[in-house]
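Data availability (excerpt). All sequences and predicted token strings are deposited with the supplementary files. A representative entry, Xylose isomerase, is shown inline so that the format can be inspected without opening the archive.
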Amino acid sequence: MSDFFQGLAPVRYEGPDSANPLAFRYYEKDRLVLGKRMEDHLRFAVAYWHSFAWEGGDPFGGRTFARPWFDGGMEAARLKADVCFEMLDLLDAPFFCFHDRDAAPEGHSLAESNRNLREIADIFAEKMEKTGRKLLWGTANLFSNRRYMAGAATNPDPEVFAYAAAQVRAVFDVTHRLGGANYVLWGGREGYETLLNTDLERELDQLGRFLAMVVDYKHRVGFQGTILIEPKPQEPTKHQYDHDVATVYGFLRRYGLEKEVKVNIEVGHAVLAGHSFEHEIALASALGILGSVDANRNDYQSGWDTDQFPNNHPEMTLALYHILKAGGLGSGGFNFDSKLRRQSLDPEDLIAAHVGGMDVCARALLSAAAIVEDGGLDRALAERYAGWDRPDATEMLGMDLGAIADWVERDGIEPEPRSGRQERLENLVNRFV
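Structure token line:
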């Protein structure tokens, strides 16, 4: 046990009228929502990197946080694991997730790095057995070390490609051993800064082959979880190959992997791509690749990925509405890929931030469920597309262009526009948020 959260009590549900900043007002894990426990809908996960590895720096200034595990090798890594599980207990959060280099320090060789990771995985396994906490997903950090400055799978140096493959195998094995529900491929530098030194076709083929190898390995070792890609349009590269959900789907189709891989969608990345969060959720659902969620938000006055804790209840409501309509996230969940502001120094700030984020998601779930139960959006959608249920309309989809044109001319079809009623539907949603 550590004393990092000394004096803080486990967070409890106190209801909407509570003014306690360290109490849940909406998150009540055993509450049934549409016949399913709230905890099972949301599947919250604490993220290792932003919660315990981020030092509070920005492009113009370094570390602001004073964490006792920031320096000290494996001893510090063991302390970090203790603090992580203490926070999981305080929040009663069911899952955690990690990058390998945030859980254990990089060694002088890959073999040493892997030994470090396996040692921390032993600690994870013991703590998971004692507490019942689970692993939502693991992933390899293929972006921080200078060897990956030109990408990992897309690197022009074949030795870097090979090193990345070896690193992924090690993290995949640990994720599999710990019963991870998913494995994420986060392409932090899989893109380009300039086309002057980039062979796009070659790099895409390398990335497709790399992903196919991971899928093959999944089946070889019997991993039952889901492989996820996290779309991101830019930052730090000028253009990343996993720009958004649509781009990822096109990539998966090209390499025959659309049935094997799904997406982990982040709010902030959706915004950077010029989309709304609910757009990316709805499109992933429509394409059959909705997997999991990084729950955060961007500052809309900043043009970069600020990774703040979610606090926009209406925005999250629309996303959860589409998740509910899709049947849920399956093996995925809501991982808090969110970080404190660099001036939020206290351990209590870390707990309060997660309490607020969990409450926003829980409140949004209740609102989204109420919209589903009301049925007004469903009825409006059905009415708008009702014409396509007519036999002649269904038959038209099997006709060629000429036959359709002849039909229109023969019957003198003159369509009359109908209102989309957007404002009425916006008002309907606002009844529940």
